[in-house]
Every structure is written in structure tokens, then in C-alpha cells.
Design goal:
CATH topology of the largest domain: Rossmann fold
Strand order of the largest sheet: 5-4-3-6-7-9-8
Number of domains: 2
Number of helices: 11
Strand content: 25-35%
CATH superfamily of the largest domain: Vaccinia Virus protein VP39
Distance between the termini: 30 Å
Structural class: alpha/beta
Largest sheet: 7 strands, mixed
Length: about 400
Amino acid sequence: MYLADWYKKDVVLRWQGGSWSFAVAQELFSSHEVDSGSLLLLKSLDIEALPERGRCLDYGCGYGVLGLAVGALRPAWEIVLIDRDALAVAFGEHNAGKLGLRACCLTALDPVESDPGTPGYDLLLWNVPGKAGAGVLARLTGEALDVLAPGAILALVVVHPLADTIRDAIRARDDVAVVHEHAGREHTVIHARRVAGIPLGSRDGFAEGVFDREAIEVVYGDLAYGLVPVVGLPQYDGPDQASLLVIDALQSLALAADGDARAIVVRPGVGHIPMAVRGRWRDASLTLVDRDLLALRASERALGKGAPISMFASPDFERIDTGLPFDLAIAMIPDQTRPPVMARLLDDLTARTKPGGWMLVGGDSTEVSRFAGLARKRSGLRVRDQRKRRGVSITVVERREG
């Protein structure tokens, strides 16, 4: 099972006289123990007051601790877990099965994507991210309120410095009332009840600009393009050094004819590398893979209409079919990548690169050197180049013919 490569440990939640164990990954929030904000939010809930049946959304679910805790005590409830991180959703789904619970687990950016419209949710649980920015949080608070059924509760926990942003977003509504508020050591818990109105229909918060920063124009050598960065992703003011190294290497590769080319980018970020590939191969078929749905949406928008684009929100290739092998595979490696995850990435890129094709891998110099070391030990691969600049590097690997 592919999650075994990401698995770090089990953490235990003790609440309402029960004890539940959750598998976690190092890369997910609160992988050491259940975080204090989630505990404070759970303690604020009056479980006895909940009906036997209802619908609960755990927004930004992580490994599922909030929604699955409610589901454990209200097994007849419909539990929905959503997160923009496909790895979090995969662990949430795994933990639901581990606890013997049924849950709908979705990779999504905002509440309205989960299941908008009637009948709406009876309870929405939200551990508010601390780095999303006030403007984004205000918009997302509104969307969370929009998907509530009449009489339903939005129960959230937020770090103190952002509490006023949430309060202001709630007070701006005439169909919502704050029914509970409690300040802990570092967090504020707020319960807001939808006192009027009905759940709104389908919307696309990303298309409406919820996450947008100011548009930028990039000029680097012969490459020129524009894109709209988003809050929550780096490289909002231009490509970083690792991306520039990849862009430089692209110019020196012997690549297939434009119209017949197929390329894949793993962790495309806000879109700089996909735009560089499109600049080199105008008509190439392009596949994007990332854990982060926000990165995929941002890159897709940057590319615009044109050559075919396929996108997969996934932590790796275990559950996806990318079709025919690629002429070029580009992957950006995150810092502190676990050894089994690194080995799996090499396996996956090798399997999906055609003989005579190329792999470009970039990131922190230590991580890239680890990848290159693994590639040198693999028959059928040849490390052709490795370039360094300011603590980052890339390696160029050829998959040999035959």
C-alpha cells in the first residue's frame, strides 16, 4: 500500500470518554500529536445536542481527526472530509476505514466544492489555517456559512491574531449569529449559527479569484509569459533558482518534435515550469501531478487554452494512469523527502519516461544529490548533468534505449 511510504506514526485522540488512533504522515499538519486547536474545538461541541442523523463537513480535514471524531459518536451521520492536499485526503480516507467509519473524502479547495445546495450541512468543522491571509479567510468564511442548512452550526478554531478577521466576516452577514465564543491559550473557538437563508448552489471559488494575488509578467532570456499567482504558494514574484535551473536545462535538451511531444511535471507549483515547457514545446501534450489542488488549478490557468492538459491531484502515481510514456519528466523535490518516497519517485519517473527520454529533477541540493545517487545505481539510466546554484540544484537523467 503506497501510504506506507508516507506513514510516520499513529496519534491518539482521547475525547468524550473514547480513544481513537489516527495514522499520520510527516508531511501533514500536526503529525506529532493531535494539535491543541483541534482539541479545543472538539471540547466546545455539545455532542448530546446533535440529532441522531445529520451531515457534517470537516473542511481542511488533514488526516481527518475532527470529522471522524464526530462520526465515531454519531455513526448515522454523513461525514464529508475535504482538503486541498491529496495526501491529507488519502490519510483521512485510510483513517475512516481504520476506525470502521464511512466518510466521503474529496480533494477540494473550498466548502462549496464538496456538495453544494440543498439540504446543506448541519455541522461544519474548520481548523482555520494560520497562513492563508486575511482576505482569503474572509472569503472562505463566507463560503463555509453559505453551505450550512438553516439552523446549522459553523464551529471553527483560529489563532488569536486572525480571530477578528473571522468575526468581521460573520458580522457582515445578516443571516448568521454567533452563539458561542471561547478563548484558549493560543486559539479562539467560534460557533456561528445560520439563522436564515438556504444553502447556495454550485460555485467555483478559485475562478472567482478567492486565492488570487496580483498578476506578474516574467521575462527570462527568450521566455516570456504572464500568470496570476495565488496566496499559499511560493514563487509569487517570479521563478526561484531551482526553477530557473530547470528552465536553463530545457533549452539544452534534444527533444522530440513539437506536435508529437509528451511531457509531465510533478509539483508544478504556481505554473512557472509548465509555462517554460509550453514555451519550448508549444503543442506538446502536458500532464501535471501534485498533492496540492491549488497548484494544479493555478498552473492550469496559467497555461490557458491550447495543447491538451491532464491534471491529477495525488501524492504519487499509485492511483493514476498517465497513459503513454513521456518524452520529458520534470519533478521538483520537496525538502526532507523520506527515503521510501524518494525511491518511489525514481521508480515512477523511470516507468513513465520512454527510452531515449529525459528526466529533470530540481530542488534543494541535498535532495537532488540523493536522487542522482539513486539514479546512478539504476540500470538503464544515465545521469548526464548536475548543476548547482545558491543551495539548489538540478540533475538531468537520460533513460537509455534498449
